[in-house]
Amino acid sequence: MVIWIPAEAAPLTDAGLTSYHAVKRSVHLLGPGSAAVVIGAGGLGQMAIQVLKALASATTVVAVDTSTDKLKIATRMGADEALISGDDAITRIKHITGGQGAELVLDLVGVGPTLRMAAEVSRVLGHLTIVGLGNAALPVNFHSPAQECSVASPFWGAIPELIDVISLAQTGKITMLVEHFSLDDAAHAYQLLHDGKIRGRAVITPND
Q: Whole-structure pTM over 0.85, yes or no?
């Protein structure tokens, strides 16, 4: 059993719970031969990859990001494929899924390019789940997303789900990359987050 100190466990209540809640609603779709696409391999995406592997080990997990460093982390976290965002990634995902699209597409970013990609790689009767809070809208027409694809934007989670998240962490099935900052460095931490330079999650603690 893993023993967590508060500063290490804190992101479980945020990135951990949010990702778990988003994944759990779609687990019934993720049997053998299925695929799940995680767009955005930051703190939320890293956790989503691990939750997918813990709850739906038979599915192929594809991580997509603009950062090669974050994709390397995604691979360490269990992603089966790690792709640089763009048209080549869309082509590769369609190849992996036999041209059908992924059963689950998780957009952990929520900006224009990621939402367009999410719609393009969605599957008939699949789930497209928007978790990222980027200021953009999903393009919707008869051809995109795929017909009868369910679109949802879940938020956070419930206490019983948090208990599940803590259990997964205690057994070592999920872990979070945590970078620590003092209260005096809070502004710097937010700037790093804005610039996409936080590798996992930033935790700010009171100064000693």
A: yes
